[in-house]
Amino acid sequence: MNKIVPLVKVFFAPRECLMPQLESVLYSGQIAEGQQVYEFEEEFGNKFKIPNVLAMSSGTAALHAALTLAGVQPGDEVISTPMTAEPTNTSILYCGAKVVWADVDPLSGNIDPDSIRQSITVKTKAIVVVHYAGYPVRLAEIRAIANEYCIPLIEDCAHALGATYDGKAIGTVGDFGIFSFQAIKHMPTVDGGVLTLANDKYLTNAKKFRWFGMLKGVPRTEVDIQSIGYKYNMNNVTATIGLAQLQNIDSVLNRYIENGVYFDRQFKNIQGVDFAHSDKVAKSSYWLYTLLSDNSNEIEKALNANGIMASKLHRPNNMHSIFNNSNKPLPGLDKFYKRLLHIPCGWWVSDEDRQRIVDVIKKG
Q1: Fewer CB within 10 A of the terminal residue: the chain, N end or C end?
Q2: What is the pLDDT of residues 35-82, one digit of tens each?
Q3: Model confidence over 122-131: pLDDT tens digits?
């Protein structure tokens, strides 16, 4: 019997790399936010060439911070995509704002720039884009729209660590960017996230936002809280895991990309299937390989029957009752979701596994 090939799988650095560092911090007496967190911020920024990095307790916390720093308040509107994990859009509700759906490009599942433009009103206070499954959105067009209307652009990069657009790291084109280190992402730290800021003028307020409205290092008897803050900081234990993960991330990301490029080449020649497409200047990090076919249900059954886990994974957010007041026709989303199928693409997918996946799809 063939081994099971999972759709997602947790990666951790080798035991001999991770455990000595983890044991050291666990028994150091300093496990809350401290030196390891600040080292992780610096190393992450250096590795991916991203300025102004703040480590957070989760990607969701980072997104809540980005929206707040962008000025989103109750009664405002935020343009976003329904094709994402739910926290992208529930974070908008945290701010008391209304989610306004933009449709998606059926060739990629990413937010459609033309639909963004059509959705802008005087109440629009931010645009949130998601590089869905690791495939960069049409950033040049969207950045131009945001500039034209002077609307902050937030990049949700939870799926897209290591992806680039026109030679620039994902997360550096928008005014704000967020990354996630949740368990099944490219680089898990058990949980955690990062907020990135194009303009360092937001740094002080961002630091206050992640720590109860206070700045670390100021004596508690001297602080004066002037704005709402949350318990959104990363801790030294999580940061230590992150530092160990960064030592191994190149090989992990490279394997995702190698497998994704292999699938692209193979599926070009198979009738009845296609795959997600980005701008020519974009390079995906293929967190999930996005296969497209009018026979996606049949292909899913064939793969699962052969021990290969495949599914749509996410449910479009507009299907949730909590977003009922955002309902509108989304024909691009309907077309994309009907044809969508995610297949395994990560570091655990061997050369033999990926060939088996291709063979099953060819037979289908």
Answers
A1: N
A2: 999 999 999 999 999 999 999 999 999 999 999 999 999 999 999 999
A3: 999 999 999 9
pLDDT of 1 strictly over 60 = no
What's at 204, amino acid-wise?
Answer: T
User: What pLDDT, in 10s, does the model give residues 191-234?
Assistant: 999 999 999 999 999 999 999 999 988 888 999 999 999 999 99
Single-letter amino acid code for the residue at 253 = L
What is the Cα–Cα distance from 279 to 137, expressed in whole angstroms?
Answer: 8
Inform me whether the pLDDT recorded for 243 exceeds 90.
yes
Q: Distance (Å, rounded) from C-alpha 77 to C-alpha 60? A: 18
Strands 124-130 and 77-80: what pairing?
A: parallel
Backbone phi, then psi, for 88, in 5-degree steps?
Answer: -55, -45
Catalytic residue among 125, 185, 208, 283: 185
CATH fold of the domain at 249-363: Aspartate Aminotransferase, domain 1 (3.90.1150)
- The CATH classification of domain 15-246, taken from the options 3.40.50.300, 2.60.40.1930, 3.40.640.10, 3.40.190.170: 3.40.640.10
- Sorted by where each begins, the domain ranges of the chain are 15-246, 249-363
Place of tokens 């974070």: 91
Residue 122, judged by CB atoms within 10 A of its CB (0-12, 13-18, 19+), counts as exposed
The answer to whether the beta carbons of residues 249 and 271 sit under 8 Å apart is no
User: Is 208 one of the catalytic residues?
Assistant: no
Whether the model pTM is above 0.90: yes
